[in-house]
Design brief:
This protein is globular. It has a five-stranded antiparallel β-sheet with strand order 3-2-1-4-5, with no helix packed on it. α5 runs parallel beside α7 and α11 packs antiparallel against α13. The protein is built from 15 helices and 31 strands. The termini are far apart.
Length: 696
């Protein structure tokens, strides 16, 4: 008798190829099954009810995913067989299933895709024989696209276009009809996937960074840039010693400084910011372009500006020895640097010197012996006073408990062909920190001024860490041997975090602890409501000092002009502040993602030449699938768990990977060998080189 729906229970339950040996064997099998499931947590019958929720699906490369619920509840795990074809970013309806699981937590099953999160994907065109006969009869051939995004575990069936070749980087419009791998149509060919240009352009396209300006916006910008300056309603500040200090390669110079010492030891700090809003009229094509872009995006060898170059690098840039419109914030400071008052006025300034950070740092160190002294001779007395004020402001910031998470920043050095030839850590000297302190002071002063006058503002806000994040941080720090009692205080004190960083610095684990703190902290965002800035310990804070490159600053400038200076009703700009805050937050996240991916691309292109080389590194983080290690030049890669020598177990509570007496924890020094670079995905794979360096 053939096995089918009428086969006997004995045959159905038998071990393949064997007959059951009788009652005794069945009893033993039942006992073994009971032992295997003894540790599974049983859900009471009254909790086995099901509910339906909605949210955004977050996919993984291994098929399963998580639901970020609209109701704010904890993320819901969705097994791979329950995704119903949902892709990362889709809005979905999910049935919550309470059932017997290993940890007693509920799981979800996707019922319906409410809204597709992405209509296109970018990846590499490949040819193979994985397609079924039906797909080939439908004219699809054996071509498919593997997405660059590792959160998409799919292959997209496509028909090549005349312009595309196997191995090209392409953009595909999805046609999703079933729960299986979707079909697609190639809509753009970037070029060979191994080329720098193709990867560069594909990252810009995938992150959605606008590259080209609308012709009407360009035309309007050029007309505004040609408009002659007028003194009407402005104060000329030609007599003041005003100058800029920026990076050597900066072209959009939007901030200049001046300083005078007043009677009684007080200070009058002038922060003069390019008055961009007078070049960007409201409700115009140029204004819409600024709202759409939200921020300038700075890559290794190019800039995608928020405003057309004729403004960002021309009429608005505070170039030396040229008259420029500015909004000047004059901040009166106490002898110890405390902010007393702030006033803002429209002005016309003329920068005396185009300062460069590296040159000013040399000047601070060597004084009149510096080779740059002649260039800065006329502003040198002001620089000396500024350095004294910077010291006071920095001490005041430390006294307030403001956090200083100085993560190492990569500086990628390019040759004349646009190829990366070296990667070093970018160094910050007193000149960089001086300008940073002056800008922080101006931002606090302007936010305070607008708030006291009842004027709308686009605030920069930063909430305290959430309790669950603090719990994860406490576990992490305890595993590294730090005292975590300060995390249980009713009100967090950022000075405790500063003390923690100092301890980590002494132990040589500063980078690992800084990274853990960053992950625990809430993300700073823009808001029309003043809820304070936790990291800076500032109750009122906004961005005022970079209107050439940030929408938030441009919006604050416009509100200052219209409400503070022209006297228009504040309520007219309350909604504008809300819209600008939302757009500035969204576009900032987009820019950060694009900048990160371009940097990873260049790092991989540089490191490709070192495949097989051994480097000293530190463990930056450990996970259930391996550990990440960071080289001295900030390049980071992963050692997969399967490639570690032994059966390593991940301990989430103590953030360790252990095998017997061998333990890996964040901050540990190791030697790693570079095994592989994937520039198109910005990933590096390491292997462990020598176990003698592993701390037990």
């Amino acid at each position: 008798m053939k096995y089918g729906k009428h086969r006997s229970p004995q045959k159905k339950n038998a071990h393949p190829g064997k007959r059951l040996a009788g009652h005794s064997a069945r009893s033993q099998a039942t006992a073994r099954a009971r032992n295997r499931t003894a540790h599974i947590r049983r859900i009471p019958d009254d909790r086995r009810t099901e509910e339906t929720v909605q949210g955004v699906f977050s996919g993984t490369g291994r098929g399963f995913g998580f639901l970020h619920r609209d109701d704010g509840a904890d993320d819901l795990f969705i097994p791979a067989h329950c995704t119903a074809g949902a892709l990362d970013g889709d809005r979905v309806s999910v049935r919550v299933r309470y059932q017997d699981t290993y940890d007693g937590r509920p799981e979800g099953q996707v019922l319906r895709i409410l809204e597709q999160g992405r209509s296109t994907v970018i990846g590499t065109l490949c040819e193979g024989r994985w397609l079924n006969r039906r797909a080939r009869r439908g004219g699809m051939g054996n071509f498919f696209v593997i997405p660059d995004d590792t959160r998409l575990p799919i292959k997209v069936r496509v028909t090549p276009t005349p312009e595309s070749r196997t191995g090209d980087k392409v953009e595909v419009r999805l046609r999703r009809r079933t729960q299986s791998d979707p079909d697609g149509e190639i809509v753009r060919v970037f070029g060979p996937a191994s080329s720098l240009h193709a990867n560069y352009e594909s990252i810009l396209a995938e992150t959605g960074v606008p590259v080209e300006f609308d012709p009407f916006a360009l035309e309007q910008a050029e007309a505004e840039a040609r408009r002659p300056l007028t003194d009407r309603g402005r104060t000329r500040r030609d007599h003041e010693i005003i100058f800029t200090i920026d990076g050597e390669d900066a072209k959009d110079l939007d901030d200049a400084v001046s300083l005078r010492q007043l009677a009684g030891g007080k200070w009058l700090l002038g922060v003069h910011i390019a008055d961009v809003s007078c070049y960007v009229p409201e409700r115009t094509a140029l204004d819409r372009a600024a709202m759409e872009r939200g921020t300038s995006v700075y890559f290794i060898d190019r800039v995608v500006p928020m405003l057309p170059p004729c403004l960002s690098n021309g009429a608005c840039s505070l170039n030396p020895n040229e008259d420029r419109y500015a909004l000047s914030a004059y901040l009166t400071l106490a002898p110890d640097g405390d902010l007393i008052s702030c006033r803002v006025e429209p002005s016309i300034i003329r920068s005396r010197v185009r300062g460069v950070y590296s040159e000013v740092n040399d000047l601070f160190e060597n004084g009149a012996r510096s080779p740059y002294y002649a260039k800065y001779r006329t502003v040198y007395p002001s620089l000396q006073k500024m350095h004294r004020l910077y010291t006071l402001l920095h001490e005041a910031q430390q006294a307030r408990g403001a956090m200083e998470l100085d993560r190492p920043e990569a500086k990628i050095i390019m040759n004349e062909k646009g190829e990366p030839v070296d990667i070093v850590c970018r160094e910050r000297g007193d000149a960089e920190r001086l300008i940073e302190q002056f800008m922080l002071c101006a931002n606090r002063g302007v936010a305070t001024l607008l708030t006291e006058r009842g004027i709308p503002c686009v605030y920069r806000v930063h909430d305290a860490p959430l309790p669950e994040k603090l719990g994860e941080l406490a576990v992490y720090l305890k595993g590294m041997g730090f005292d975590t009692a300060f995390l249980r205080k009713e009100k967090l004190d950022t000075r405790d975090f500063s003390a923690l960083l100092e301890q980590a610095r002494e132990r040589g684990t500063e980078h690992a602890v800084s990274y853990a703190l960053l992950r625990a902290m809430a993300k700073a965002v823009y808001s029309p409501q003043a809820t304070g800035h936790f990291g800076l310990q500032a109750p009122l804070y906004c961005h005022f000092t970079s209107p050439i490159r940030r929408l938030s600053d441009l919006a604050v400038h416009r509100i200052i002009h219209k409400v503070l200076l022209e006297g228009q009703p504040p309520r007219r700009y309350a909604d504008y502040a809300k819209r600008a805050a939302a757009a500035a937050t969204d576009t900032e996240l987009r820019a950060m993602e694009a900048e990160r991916r371009i940097e990873e691309l260049y790092k991989c292109l540089y490191m490709e030449r070192f495949v097989g080389t051994v480097f000293p590194a530190r463990v930056s983080s450990v996970t259930g699938f391996g550990m990440f290690c960071e080289l001295e030049n900030t390049c980071e890669g992963m050692i997969p768990l399967a490639e570690l020598p032994g059966m390593f177990v991940f301990d989430q509570a103590h953030q360790t990977l252990s095998c017997g007496t061998t333990v890996f924890r964040p901050g540990d020094p190791v030697q790693v060998r570079l095994e592989e670079c994937e520039p198109n995905r910005g990933r590096m794979r390491f292997s462990l080189a020598g176990r003698e360096t592993v701390q037990a």
